[in-house]
Amino acid sequence: MKRKLAIGAGAALALATLGGAPAFAADHESTVSVLHGVPGLTVDVYINGEEAISDFEPGTLTDPMMLAAGSYDIQVFADGETPDSGEPAIEAMGVEVPGGANLTLVAHLTESGDPTLGAFANDTEPVAAGEARLTVRHLAAAPTVDVRANESVVVEGLSNPDGASLETAAGTVSADVVLTGTSDVAIGPADLDLAEGVNTIVTAWGSAEDGNLALAVQTVEAHSAPSGVPSGLGGNAQQSALTALLAFAAALGLATVAVRQQRLAKERG
Amino acid sequence: MRTTDGLSPRTTRREPARRARRRRAVALVAAVAAVGAAAFGIWQLIPRPVEPSASTVGAPATAAPTPAASPDATSEAQAAAVPTGVGTRDASPGAAAAVDAPTEVRVPSVGLALDVIPVGVREDGQMDVPELVREVGWYRFGPEPGATEGSSVLAAHVDSDRGPAPMSEILDAVPGESVEITTASGEQLRYRITSVEQLSKDELPLDAIFARDGDHVLRLITCGGEWDAAAGAYEDNIVVTAVPDAS
């Protein structure tokens, strides 16, 4: 198997535009994961000539790698081939990895079914406590789609290789992908756990023509703490407000009675 | 109460001097009682600070974990370092991992034993502490007790409008004492208190208190300090931190 995969222009482009790293992240390295979204091709991935990922199967995702900011040569060989024995099936030389970013490198198909490589920035900006972020990416050989959650369209008109992101209350939703403007289900439904403080990235991959469309899920942290712990109700940890109020009311009542009685007594002289 | 036509029998009818004396005596007793009751009421209304008996002021154990140092000087060298044997996993959608939620918390040394319920976040972004003062809220979005890393947060009200709440017992806890947790599966977890801190809500290290990573700790939180009537809240939080106790 010596299918040569062309590097997608998107890969270099996406990486190049990631220069503006978030201020809160360390600026000397980036978190990089790799998702394999090309059906029917088990591969080994070499980075700067070293085998980084072996027996990489379609529909699998690597653990996050920390890569120092810099230039990388990424070569993908069909399983069993090595830089010494063969030509890479896909090659991306001199890929600039910025600092302070969270990236996913995805081998996937274009809308017309050609293998390509794309780099995508993952949004790790914290969501509010109690919230979850959902990111959807269309990286499948399939036409424009809508993404639905619990049968309501949440992302409309998504085309390969675009993505969209939204924030919602944390929880489990039933998600599916339909051909845009229709209710013809292309993928799913699948239960998605939209965990709190997490960016759940759902990628549609595969080929509609070959009937192997699927979803791949990656999660990245985006959590923030609640804004406080309000754990006192009455200001009465040492005493009871009710007791105090009753005592005060009783005092007022008795005082009124006393004054009245005194006045009566005087009047009666 | 004098009326021109003298129709009010209570004010116009002359009474025997004996009754008038008795009325004076009643009035005197009532006045004394009133002064006493008023004094008691005012004393009750004076806010007093709520403080843990073992406050470790100036020894913040809740400082954010420091990440492993990575001097910039080594960046150039690291640029060539490439991970090998990177792990992979199936990326198919999966169900949420089952969590063994806590159901009861006990601090035997101070006689605290309360049920635990999962809680989330209020509309205003603060942790949703249970209304019932006999219940402790576990922040279900964070790690559960028994997790491998991060901070499990349990919080309850220190009082209600009826007086001190059961959670106020935690104010008497001191480092070294045990905290016991029972989980939904029946597992018994044991922690040892390492610090009891009183922290101003303005300066609360929320990111550290609610950390999702770093060494696993248990935090029991309630309120303390001065009651700010205008804000309707205490000025401080009491944060009891405990670590897993293997023994």
From TrEMBL, chain A:
Keywords attached to this entry: Membrane, Signal, Transmembrane, Transmembrane helix
Signal peptide: 1-25
Ranges where the DUF4397 domain occurs: 30-148
Parts of the chain that traverse the membrane: 241-259
Keyword Cytoplasm: no
A Pfam entry, by short name: DUF4397
UniProt keyword Membrane present: yes
Protein name (Swiss-Prot/TrEMBL): DUF4397 domain-containing protein
Species annotation: Agrococcus sediminis
From TrEMBL, chain B:
Residues spanning the membrane: 25-46
SUPFAM superfamilies, A to Z: Sortase
InterPro entries in the cross-refs: Sortase (IPR005754), Sortase_dom-sf (IPR023365), Sortase_F (IPR042001)
Single GO term (MF): hydrolase activity
Polar residues biased stretches: 1-10
Compositionally skewed regions (Low complexity) per UniProt: 52-77
Gene3D superfamilies per UniProt: Sortase
Protein name in the entry: Class F sortase
Record keyword Ribosomal protein present: no
Species of origin: Agrococcus sediminis
Keywords noted in UniProt: Hydrolase, Membrane, Transmembrane, Transmembrane helix
Residue span of region Disordered: 1-20, 52-95
Keyword Phosphoprotein: no
